[in-house]
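Record 1 of the preview.
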Amino acid sequence: MGVNSGSKMITVEEREMVRDLILLPYIDTMVAKSLKEMELHHNVLSRAYLTAGRYIQKRVIQEAYHLRQELKRRDIKVVEDMQDDFITHNMIFCRGYQERFGLTRDVMRTEISLRLTRYTTELAEALRGQLDNP
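->
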């Protein structure tokens, strides 16, 4: 059996994984929209911006894939339930136990901003490494 096979309750770590899995499609949509806008408005740095955006989009897709695999391994399934103006609700099915999980728009906005900052920092560090090691 998988991790936490003795407990049906979702752990704090698993709840964070669920939150991230819910947020990643929103980030992907935002990045894709920005990439489309950038493709329409050319400037001197368009190629650099597009490359950075594609890097971030690739990281988002990779992270979502890994989260889905890990949650599946832990016998956790997340299903979108409903949305209203302020809260997005999902159902979590965790080792036979189920619960409703809600995220407010404000929390989502903050978490998305933090995540985009992390991806941008990763990219900057990778570029810095390339520039430091010619």
